[in-house]
């Protein structure tokens, strides 16, 4: 099973590895975290390894439904006809797609006039990793994704003989509430419930091994038809790639099994949302965890950080200081904020604590865990996160804390006597803080990136404000 992932290409052996192939699939990640790509003739692809190939800059000029943004940006412009970026294949990202006849697959980076495209999340995160490397550190990360699964309907109802991709036609004529969950009821960690769709369930785990998006654990979660995938820890830039590719894998297998996987943060009223918790740590060049303290600090300000190193404390301070200004990168959609409500296992305020799952940041450290596993779990993101942007935001925020040697600004949540700071509760509030002149976002990221991403979110806000929802129509059609 592992043979497909065993080929590790370099520029020297890539020709040999692809010798028997005649086509290649290549894709980049847009500003919504969606893969955009195409199939290429192998010879055309190989000729692009040195200098890249053309890829329309509209990639960062439209939304997830290909609607152009109304605000002009310098890096991609309708006035300039959305000229080409240069797409650079990332040889190290090579995989074969086992459900597409093992076609070779590569991820892309994007350049414009020999400079990185400011919105390219893969390049942003890599540059942060390179900066970390200059100081002798690496960042490790893990991501846990929950997603709800629906039976895919056809236009005429539910059948295994219809078009498994006809969800849009169905929703044109039926309310979303007409969708059927893949499995009914709430049964977390069930050993039985996955058997109802065991081929789909087990194929996801097995194909992840072949596609190098390996899972550490895989189980049912606390809502109908919900699975949770914990991706196996890796270096942070690789983890961001794996999250994107995991979604691609699950959606691809869903088509074959007449299942619609849903990574919305809050798909259904009254049910828990789909989380996208992020675990993050730093190591030295040898792989040793640098958040772990050699000996407990009995003079620590709070017992929760007795086993947390100075670097770990600075990193935590950086997270707590910056997260309020970075919320659109952690919760990027209108729907994201419908998950961040009380009593649904999602944080509404900014806080932290040792093994505290009710706080936005859970510190995992001795004496509960082993020193080498010391890390932070950021519980704000949902499954709708853009992994490259979200991981870059957290790494940039924590590293800023290390560089500035920031002090942890608030005690653990359970020890606080005042009310913790509330997180932004809507996307428009979050974007206003994110793009403000004094925002920490502008300290961590380039102004060009902040402006472009803000424009993309303002586009989303504008479309939402123009929409008339089923709730409004039902409530007001007769009474007002």
TrEMBL record:
Record SUPFAM superfamilies: Glutamine synthetase, N-terminal domain, Glutamine synthetase/guanido kinase
Residue ranges occupied by any GS catalytic domain in the UniProt entry: 121-480
GO MF entry, a single one: glutamine synthetase activity
Listed Gene3D superfamilies: Glutamine synthetase, N-terminal domain (3.10.20.70), Glutamine synthetase/guanido kinase, catalytic domain (3.30.590.10)
An individual GO BP term: biogenic amine metabolic process
Family matches, as InterPro entries: Gln_synt_N_sf (IPR036651), Gln_synth/guanido_kin_cat_dom (IPR014746), Gln_synth_cat_dom (IPR008146)
UniProt keyword list: ATP-binding, Ligase, Nucleotide-binding
Source organism superkingdom: Eukaryota
Family: Belongs to the glutamine synthetase family.
Name this protein carries in UniProt: Glutamine synthetase
Source species of the chain: Knufia peltigerae
């Amino acid at each position: 099973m592992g043979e497909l992932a065993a080929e590790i290409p370099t520029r020297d052996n890539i020709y040999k590895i692809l010798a028997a192939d005649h086509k290649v699939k290549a894709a980049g990640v847009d500003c919504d975290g969606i893969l955009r790509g195409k199939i290429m003739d192998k010879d055309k692809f190989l000729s692009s390894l040195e200098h890249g190939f053309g890829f329309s800059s509209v990639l960062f000029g439209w939304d997830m439904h290909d609607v152009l943004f109304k605000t002009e940006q310098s890096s991609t412009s309708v006035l300039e006809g959305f000229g080409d970026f240069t797409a650079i294949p990332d040889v190290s990202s090579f995989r074969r797609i086992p459900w597409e006849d093992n076609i070779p697959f590569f991820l892309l980076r994007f350049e414009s006039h020999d400079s990185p495209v400011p919105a390219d999340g893969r390049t942003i995160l890599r540059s942060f990793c390179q900066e970390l490397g200059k100081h002798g550190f690496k960042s490790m990360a893990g991501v846990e994704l929950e997603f709800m699964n629906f039976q895919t309907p056809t236009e005429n109802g539910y059948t295994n003989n219809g078009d498994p991709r006809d969800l849009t036609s169905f929703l044109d004529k039926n309310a979303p509430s007409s969708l059927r969950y893949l499995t009914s009821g709430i049964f977390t960690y069930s050993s039985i419930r996955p058997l109802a769709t065991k081929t789909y369930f087990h194929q996801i785990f097995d194909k992840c091994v072949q596609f190098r998006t390996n899972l550490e654990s895989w189980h049912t979660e606390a809502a109908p038809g919900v699975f949770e995938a914990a991706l196996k820890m890796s270096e942070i830039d690789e983890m961001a790639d794996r999250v994107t590719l995991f979604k691609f894998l699950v959606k691809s297998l869903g088509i074959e099994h007449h299942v619609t996987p849903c990574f919305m943060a809050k798909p259904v009223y009254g049910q828990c949302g789909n989380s996208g918790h992020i675990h993050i740590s730093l190591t030295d060049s040898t792989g040793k965890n640098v958040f772990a303290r050699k000996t407990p600090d009995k003079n620590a300000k709070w017992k929760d950080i007795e086993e947390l190193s100075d670097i770990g404390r600075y990193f935590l301070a950086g997270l707590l200081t910056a997260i309020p200004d970075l919320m659109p990168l952690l919760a990027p959609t209108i729907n994201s904020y419908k998950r961040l409500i009380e009593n649904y296992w999602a944080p509404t305020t900014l806080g932290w604590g040792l093994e505290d799952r009710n706080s936005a940041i859970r510190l995992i450290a001795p004496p509960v865990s082993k020193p080498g596993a010391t890390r932070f779990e950021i519980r704000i993101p949902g499954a709708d996160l853009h992994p490259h942007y979200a991981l870059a935001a957290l790494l940039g925020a924590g590293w800023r804390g290390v560089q500035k040697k920031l002090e942890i600004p608030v005690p653990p949540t359970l020890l606080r006597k005042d009310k913790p700071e509330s997180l932004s509760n809507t996307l428009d509030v979050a974007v206003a803080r994110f793009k403000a002149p004094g925002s920490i976002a502008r300290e961590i990221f380039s102004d060009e990136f902040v402006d472009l991403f803000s424009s993309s979110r303002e586009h989303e806000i504008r479309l939402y404000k123009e929409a008339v929802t089923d709730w409004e129509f039902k409530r007001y059609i007769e009474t007002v």
